Amino acid sequence: MASGAGEETGTGGVESTALGVVIEVPSPLRESLRAWRCTYGGEAAARVEPHITLVSGSTTDWDAAAAHVRAVAALAGPFRVCLQGTGTFRPVAPVVFLNVREGTEACTALHDSLLRGPLGHDLSHAYHPHLTIAHEVADALMDSAQEDLRDESMGFTVSSIGLFGIDEAGQWSLREELELGGAEK
């Protein structure tokens, strides 16, 4: 990114701002996942809270994008997610993740709805809901993560989604937490 606050100049000199919409994992599951991400992905991975990405990209109109995310959240209802077993995107991408076994359809529906309107963009790969454990680390660490966590299983209810942007320090920062089916938290 060009300027530390997540803004970059696109074509025609228009500034774009990084944006992400995610499902955050509640405590105490978040702490276990953070520890695994630290073990297998290093300190840098542990600094990013465990999450399931619904959409990420950039926008030249934050207000329109945020209004769209709010509208999508208001129309969606709470649902259950079960993370179970591991998967990988290797050799295409150096990633090991926990599979979303339950809630895949709801995640995909949210993803598809979010891509309609101001967040629409071409994807290089089909959307596959997952929770990253290790990314761009040595193959031995990725192999260990995939093997060690293959029998893990945990579930939680998704009742909100988070709208994130890049703050002045260049870090992902929660801008709004949106209750599914209605009100902001």
UniProtKB/TrEMBL annotation:
This is 2'-5' RNA ligase. Coiled coil: none annotated. Keywords: Ligase. InterPro entries: 2H_phosphoesterase_YjcG-like, Cyclic_Pdiesterase. GO terms for molecular function: ligase activity. It comes from Paeniglutamicibacter kerguelensis. Pfam families: 2_5_RNA_ligase2. Gene3D superfamilies: Cyclic phosphodiesterase.
